[in-house]
Each structure stands twice: as C-alpha cells, then as structure tokens.
Amino acid sequence: MLELFLAKYNYWIVIVLMMVGLYVVVARGNLVKKIIGLNVFQTSVFLLYISLGKVAGGTAPILTGKDEVFSNPVPHVLILTAIVVGIATTALGLALVVRIREAYESIEDDEIDEAENRDMAADLAGPSR
Fold first, then answer.
1. Exposed, middle or buried, 65 (CB in 10 Å: 0-12/13-18/19+)?
2. I need a surface site. Which of 56, 105, 106, 115 has the fewest CB within 10 A?
C-alpha cells in the first residue's frame, strides 16, 4: 500500500489540492478566500495535466537521428497558457471584489445577501411618502 502511495505521489497531491480548493470555495463566505480556493483548485488541475504529460525517460522532441522516446510538449504549453488566463481571471475577480466592497461595504456572502434583500424589499415597497 505504501509503495502505491509513493509511486503515484503526484496524483495524491493533486487530489489533496483539489479537495482543499473545493472546501475553501464551498465553506468560506469571504469572496477573497473563495478566489484563493479557486486558484488552489486550478493549480491542482495544472499539476494533473503536467503529470499526465510526462513520459518516463522521455526527452525533448528534438530530432537527433537516434531512436528516442519523446515527451509531448503540448500539455506543458497548454498549462503555460492556462496560467496566464488564470492570472487574468484572478485579477478580474479581485477587481470585482473591490467593486462589491464599494457597493455593499462588505465582502462576506451573507452580509451581501442581507443588503441585497433589503434593497429589493425597499424597491418592492415603493417610494416612501
């Protein structure tokens, strides 16, 4: 059992990071913590793709005339692109959190819901006389 764990330790790390990221997104009400949880989850997906793309004993796909085993560079290139997209998405999410903080004076889910419900109740009540 220990040999199985040690042989595939990178996949166990992916599973742990996915569960931690998912827990933070679901269990926390703070919007910044939710963004951090999404980043942890995203990092676990990156590690999964990099682990799947690795070939034991593989080299870079440069033709030398000898028979060699090559690693596919496409997963690694896609992960580099995903990292850039992830940074941009995180920046956008944090900018939205700043705007939400300005509008509702909070970044907690329950406090934002209460403020939104108060605003909706005031709109339904109509103009005050």
1. exposed
2. 56
